[in-house]
């Protein structure tokens, strides 16, 4: 089977994985969304498909969960995670320890979660009437959202670990000896 077909199947499975992760019962914000967004950027680069993967998953799941006044802000807030995913070096430099490579993923995941937290909570504060439109209201919004941030960090870490472990396992099974994660190398 051609590798492009495998990539297409993987793409659809990942969308269903994220959508399903949002539809099944879970703690608030404990979803594979940020992990998929980072992974998508690392795998697909900066092209439109990389952004379409997490966006498609959000739209599919929001079709069942319901769209709301903050949907656009949430969609926008996950785009930086895709961009951060593109900064994962496609090849591990000679002499760099694997633990350092893993630390890059952890740092990017934390960065993606924090950016999402800031953008989405600025949106909640600005768009909704939940909080007073003042510095005190903004502080209250960010403070009350800290448990959601913690759940998101735990979810991103869990699902990113699963994705990277699975990707490595599939790479070994497929016989790809290159240390590259990127789909770009295998694209024809």
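^ structure tokens above, recovered residues below v
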């Amino acid at each position: 089977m051609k590798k492009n077909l495998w990539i297409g199947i993987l793409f659809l499975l990942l969308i269903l994985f994220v959508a399903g992760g949002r539809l099944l019962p879970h703690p608030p914000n404990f979803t594979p969304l940020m992990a998929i967004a980072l992974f998508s950027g690392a795998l697909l680069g900066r092209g439109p498909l990389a952004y379409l993967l997490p966006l498609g998953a959000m739209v599919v799941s929001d079709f069942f969960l319901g769209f709301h006044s903050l949907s656009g802000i949430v969609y926008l807030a996950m785009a930086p995670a895709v961009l951060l995913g593109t900064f994962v070096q496609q090849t591990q430099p000679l002499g760099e320890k694997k633990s350092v490579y893993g630390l890059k993923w952890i740092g990017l995941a934390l960065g993606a979660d924090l950016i999402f937290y800031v953008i989405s909570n600025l949106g909640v504060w600005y768009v909704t009437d939940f909080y007073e439109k003042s510095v005190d209201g903004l502080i209250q919004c960010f403070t009350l959202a800290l448990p959601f941030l913690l759940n998101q960090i735990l979810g991103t870490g869990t699902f990113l670990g699963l994705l990277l472990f699975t990707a490595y396992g599939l790479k070994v099974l497929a016989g790809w000896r290159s240390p590259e994660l990127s789909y770009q190398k295998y694209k024809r």
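The mean pLDDT is 84.
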